[in-house]
Design goal:
The complex is a heterodimer of chains A (410) and B (489). Chain A is α/β, with parallel strands linked by helices. Chain A is built from 14 helices and 6 strands. Classes of the chains: A alpha/beta (410), B mainly alpha (489).
Chain lengths: 410, 489
């Protein structure tokens, strides 16, 4: 073959192959971004969103394409996983979950700005806050840099959905699974679902153990105070702007399992958590005098409570649903109770005792009662406390000792 | 601009090629060198216009210095040579080693001097060596300074500007000179086929192998750097093997791309790698790994130090000095010096063994010993400090047992991928062997043995289909591709 014919063949084959790949992506359209889907959405597994590493790219495109949302969720993976925009508590109000896994407060602000710029109909923001993600900057690498949040074009994001290996593999997987109707189809509202994760049995405890053992290595004491202060100031400025624009904002200190509360107490950051909550409450109180019609409220769900105290070492009664995947990620059915509280839904999920609105006048009493609740839990759960302390003290030695080996009498 | 980036592959390269070939077709071959120089400035300036100015000034100083040397003899000539050396090494020392020097002094003498946090100009280590070799050869009378345009392109030629191969002026300047006389496009399609194929091989190595293995290595080395994780034996081998393959496919992939890109403009570059993981001794490894650097260190450091001409003791000392400086060339950190020192030690042992035992070990055993030595040394090369290197080495030798569970580590997948790609690098023919029928590089190509060695590229429907598959694979895997590892050096 002549070199000239070789080059012609090379490009002809390559273009044909790429056209086939694009055809696969368009006909599957797993994430519903192109509107060219040939298979019904009900065939796509709910955890499809978790199978690729570019959720920020997908989410930014989704936000740009959406219309008429009234409520927006922002936050990190806890919010992304735990607050369902289709929750009954919202009583049909159209909502989108713009929370991003691993997003710091700064990145959450970028996502919020982006969403508000694309969807002027949004009037209510539910903002999930957690201290662990509060003081950090935006990761320079990863899918953020490739997403429209970082000013990359939507076209490049769409091309990525057609041609990046992760998405092509997800499309192929979806195609193979399509003959089986899935239990709960993937939602196109930003919420991430861990499908097939056990909600009962020894593997539940193993998840708690693995996650806290990891935290024990990553978090060894207080977070940097100057960075926290800086983040508080940025949040205050953002909230003032939102209020001036007439936006209602519910700041939600997201729930964590009592094991994690105990974990923070043992590593010595309980006081920092309290100071952080106090500062947030002061910020919200100060903003009451700021110009604008928006209402800003602060709720604290990160407290010991029957919901967050669900046993880990013992099985739950059959009638009871597990509220946590592990100590920091809650399931949407706990999220439903949060939304019921925020939106004052008159449904069975509303439990007035879960979550407290924090205001400066009562914050001392609230924090003190939260502390007492944890003290009480500690007093009646010596085995759990010992286990959490063991994870912190002997993180590496915990491996190999399964929860099943744990002797309740010790 | 990365070779793997869309702006390079879809805009810069086609435009540069178009201009180059239009000039040739129009009978204006004499403008090809200035055109490529201009394009190379755009290529470098895309990253940093500020450092482009530095490069231009440095290039002019070197060119002036070379001419000054050529006009003088004796002490004046030597003075100009020393001036050139001081200039080039001074720039390298300031940009690359100032903070290293300060932090080392701080550590030893507790001076508490603040670091300067100087940004390292891309490719500085590479083009500094090229210019030093040029000046040294003119000083020694082996070469005469040429026209400014040729010299400028020798310094700036974009395919090898950032990370080599480190070319010798005698290899490329005659080819640049010849461009002026070439107005015919006789071999255009063949040269383009060869260049494109080499470029594709390099892209596949970088995008489909190196970048895919990188997370497996990074995850383990990052956790090794945190004192709270003890790296277990499986994780350590995963990290070390993945990095071993990543580094090779990343850097040799870059070299293949550089060689292919140069070939698109009718320029042949020297080979930089020759299947180093097939080596059965450390001496052989250094003949196969980063060959143009080894050549530079041999010709401009080891031999001027006395080489092997002054007895065994001096030879070993020279070897050790060369390897230590070679280590330091790679990076301004003591871990790189340790890596160089370790390889210096390996070479001493290797030479001592040959002079005492007079024979090599059985091939498989010597391959395994060599490979283990190389992997162990890569740990120092990759680790952020000595304590994380120690953590990794403990893991490699099983001293940490199964270690701590590492979040995100997929040991089975990582190990399997690394082992499979390693086997491929140790068995399959390399890029210049695949392309050997068409003289892909300057100098001879080792003909591979055995059945697999019969694999050789020639234009055909089958190779076109394989090339197309490579293009598709590169497109699929190129999202989120990272910088080349050797850019940092």
């Amino acid at each position: 073959m002549s070199p000239r014919a070789y080059i012609a063949n090379l490009f002809a084959f390559a273009l044909s192959g790429l056209a086939l790949v694009a055809a696969l992506g368009l006909s599957i359209d797993g994430f519903g971004l192109f509107g060219t889907r040939l298979i019904a959405a009900s065939h796509f597994a709910p955890n499809l969103r978790l199978t690729v590493s570019g959720d920020r790219v997908t989410k930014a495109i989704e936000i740009a394409e959406r219309r008429d949302d009234r409520v927006l969720f922002v936050g990190d993976s806890r919010t992304q996983h735990g607050l369902d925009p289709d929750a009954p508590a919202l009583t049909g109000v159209k909502a989108y979950n713009a929370a991003l896994a691993g997003a710091s407060l700064r990145e959450q602000m970028v996502a919020l700005d982006y969403a508000l710029a694309h969807e002027p109909t949004i009037k209510h923001i539910v903002w999930g806050l957690s201290l662990e993600e509060f003081p950090f900057g935006i990761a320079a690498s990863g899918d953020y840099a490739d997403s429209p949040f970082a000013n990359r074009s939507i076209t490049s994001g769409l091309l990525r959905h057609l041609f990046a290996f992760d998405w092509v593999a997800a499309s192929a997987k979806a195609l193979l699974e399509a003959p089986h109707q899935v239990r709960a189809p993937m939602k196109r509202n930003g919420v991430a679902a861990f499908d097939g994760v056990p909600v009962e049995g020894p593997r539940v405890g193993a998840r708690f153990e693995a996650e806290l053992a990891g935290s024990a290595r990553e978090l060894r004491g207080s977070l940097p105070q100057a960075a926290l202060q800086d983040a508080q100031s940025q949040l205050a400025r953002m909230l003032a702007k939102l209020k001036a624009d007439g936006m209602d904002v519910d700041l939600v200190i997201v729930p964590m399992h009592v094991w994690r509360l105990e974990f923070f107490r043992v590593i010595g950051t309980e006081a920092q958590h309290e100071a952080w909550k106090r500062e947030l409450a002061n910020t919200v109180a100060t903003l009451a005098e700021a110009p604008g019609d928006g209402k800003i409220r602060l709720f604290d769900f990160a407290r010991a409570h029957a919901f967050t105290e669900q046993p880990v070492l013992d099985p739950l009664p059959k009638s009871e649903r597990r509220f946590f995947l592990e100590s920091s990620h809650f399931y949407p059915w706990l999220g439903e109770k949060i939304l019921a509280k925020l939106f004052q839904s008159e449904d069975a999920n509303l439990d007035p005792s879960f979550g407290t609105e924090l205001v400066p006048e009562s914050i001392d009493a609230n924090l003190a009662s939260g502390k007492s609740a944890l003290d009480a839990w500690e007093a009646s759960h010596a085995r759990d406390v010992g286990y959490v302390k063991g994870l912190i003290r002997n993180g590496e030695r915990v491996r190999g000792r399964t929860l099943a080996d744990e002797d309740p009498e010790k | 601009m990365l070779f793997t980036s869309p702006e390079f592959l879809l805009v810069f390269l086609p435009l540069t090629l178009l201009g180059f070939h239009v000039l040739r077709l129009a009978g204006r071959g004499q403008f090809c060198v200035p055109w490529l120089f201009l394009a190379s400035m755009v290529f470098y300036g895309w990253w940093s216009p500020r450092f482009l100015l530095l490069l231009i000034i440095s290039m002019l100083v070197n060119w002036g210095d070379a001419h000054a040397m050529a006009r003088h003899h004796g002490r004046t000539r030597k003075a100009f040579f020393i001036l050139g050396l001081v200039w080039n090494l001074g720039i390298l020392a300031y940009f690359k080693y100032a903070d290293f020097f300060i932090s080392s002094l701080d550590a030893v003498a507790r001076l508490d001097w603040p670091l300067l946090h100087i940004v390292l100009p891309l490719g500085i280590s590479f083009f500094t060596f090229q210019k030093i070799a040029y000046l040294a050869d003119i000083h020694a009378g082996y070469a005469k300074p040429g026209p400014l345009a040729d010299f400028a392109l020798f310094v700036f030629f974009f395919p090898q500007l950032i990370a080599g191969p480190i070319v010798h002026h005698s290899e490329v300047m005659p080819q640049f000179r010849a461009m002026a006389g070439k107005n015919q496009e006789k071999d255009f399609w063949l040269e383009t086929s060869i260049g494109l194929t080499l470029l594709l091989i390099g892209l596949v190595k970088k995008v489909c192998i190196a970048d895919q293995l990188a997370p497996y290595a990074t995850n383990v080395f990052d956790h090794a750097a945190q004192n709270s994780y003890r790296i277990g034996i499986l994780a350590a081998w995963q990290g070390a093997l993945a990095y071993t393959v990543e580094l090779y496919t990343d850097f040799s992939g870059y070299s293949d791309m550089a060689i292919g890109l140069a070939r698109l403009f009718g320029v042949k570059l020297p080979a930089n790698f020759n299947s180093p993981y097939k080596s059965t001794s450390i001496i052989e490894f250094w003949r196969r790994w980063h060959m143009t650097l080894s050549r530079f260190l041999r010709d401009y450091l080891y031999i001027p130090l006395g080489g092997n001409r002054k007895g065994n003791a001096r030879r070993y000392l020279n070897l050790m000095v060369t390897m230590l400086l070679g280590g330091l060339w790679h990076g301004a950190a003591w871990t790189y010096v340790a890596w160089g020192g370790l390889h210096g030690l390996y070479l001493l042992v290797n030479h001592a063994w040959l002079s005492v035992a007079k024979r090599a070990l059985p091939p498989l055993l010597s391959w395994a010993v060599t490979f283990f030595a190389v992997i162990t040394a890569w740990v120092f090369f990759r680790a952020s400090d000595f304590s994380s290197a120690a953590n990794m080495l403990h893991g490699l030798f099983g001293l940490n047992g199964t270690g701590d569970p590492i979040p995100g580590a997929k040991k089975a997948t990582g190990l399997l991928l690394a082992a499979a790609t390693l086997a491929a690098t140790a068995i399959l023919p390399n890029s210049q062997q695949i392309m050997r029928r068409f003289n892909p590089v300057l100098g001879p190509v080792e003909v591979p043995r055995g059945l697999i060695g019969k694999l050789a590229w020639a234009p055909s429907r089958m190779t076109a289909a394989l090339g197309a598959a490579a293009i598709i694979a590169v497109v699929l895997f190129s999202w989120g591709t990272t910088e080349f590892l050797y850019f940092q050096f």
